[in-house]
Amino acid sequence: MAERTLLTKRPSWAALQSHYQNTQKSHLRDLFAADPARGTRMTAEGVGIFLDYSKNRVTDETLKLLFALATECDLKGRINAMFSGEKINITEGRAVLHTALRAPKGASVIVDGKNVVPEVHEVLDAMGAFADRIRSGEWKGFTGKPIKNIVNIGIGGSDLGPVMANESLRFYAKRELNFRFLSNVDGTDFAETVRDLDPAETLFIVCSKTFTTQETMTNAESARNWSLATLKDKASVAKHFVAVSTNAAKVKEFGIDTANMFGFWDWVGGRYSMDSAVGLATVLAIGPNNFRDLLAGFHAMDEHFRTTPFEKNLPAIMGLLSVWYGSFFGAETVAVLPYDQYLKRFPAYLQQLTMESNGKRVTLGGAEVDYQTGSVYWGEPGTNGQHSFYQLIHQGTKIIPCDFIAFCKSLNPAGRHHDLLMANVFAQAEALAFGKTAEQVKADKVEDWLVPHKTFPGNRPSNVLMVEKLTPFALGSLVALYEHVVFTQGVVWDIGSFDQWGVELGKALASKIVPELESATEPELKHDTSTNALIARYRKGKK
Ligand code: G6Q
Fold it and tell me: Whose CA is nearest to atom 11 of ligand 1?
């Protein structure tokens, strides 16, 4: 690998450090007071998403330095490298081309000398045709009944995306179909998922890129046994099981007809795969046309990210702001607060996207970083969160940058509901930024000793993202926005955002322990004394 300049040795990093020392105490109250245009000026808009970032602890100088940092880190060049299929996932030797999954028909993205876009559309067409057959009732189960229940079996990237998309787009879904998502290897998840289903009306999607993941294959085998216990005939598997995978041999071995396998490619990372065949459950729910709109939203944001100057580029701005808080202010978390009930799984989805991607401690060159990388992402839909954890964001000792996500129009207009919901978004961002001073509290005739308790320091940063309406297109553009925020962060931090070696060690150790729990001979334990004692206790306890 070419010699890389360490991030902390870059001139713009040093400039940001001294800028941070000089400005860290500046209060948003003063910044707003000094610039009457701030609230309308520090905004950007793209692909139907309006971003107000004025309530961040930044000045024009901060932004200038952050954009200079992005330029020094060659963000532009790295974006082009990703989009053009360079093998930027260096530790796995792979291209990173989720953007090709939403490239329009006719586009060209070359991987190892081959244009992959036609294949992408072939799979999309096959998914659409299959969805039409299930949705119309033309596809019959083994006993001739139409399919009513669809169970996606997958975990991690093969679960969280479809779970989130199906929940977010439930408004657009065919309500006659009942969707469930089975992920945990805990037998309870399996039992509760199938307990009231009729195998003759149930279709399982076994969704696994590798088709070897322990949790998914264990659940898939239990599902096959459960289905065969009623349908009796092995030939029924072809009518009740389909696969989403890159591993045709394993799919066949499981008994699934490879004609009912929807493929994808090694250049699609699990957490970047909801717009590939992994989205089969989503196509089944919302139909092929809505799924195409979802992809169009992704693609529009891809183009925005690829072509817009950083100063107006939503993912670049948000990514750089999170670097500012994470690496300079030492903020450890980011709260994502969607004010839309349909987006209730969006924060959980973002947790994998952000934390598996940027939870890294060495640079691409292998050196240990001497700055903070990936933040902890978390959140709940508003207004529920307000009645639980917002207290800590308002008056706690930690700085927690917030992303509020809001929609101008409700999908379910009902009396005052939407105005009340939106009033809360605006009020929360306002309260976080401006707080309530001791003087203001005193003016309310509060007793002196109570004043500190009722004072809000303010100066708590937030972004407000506003979109007209939650549509498939809007969801696609929001997800792509965060994908590219993660990319921007990763480029600046100089880390590999597209591998996940950290997940491996636990998996390897678990597979060593399984036989120690299952074997009747209770083999001798050779772990540390704590692990040995825990296993021994479990062996005794389960008898
Ligand atoms: C995501 C990860 C991981 C993966 C799951 C499922 O980026 O790689 O969450 O998606 O481990 O893997 P399979 O799809 O191979 O079962």
Answer: 156
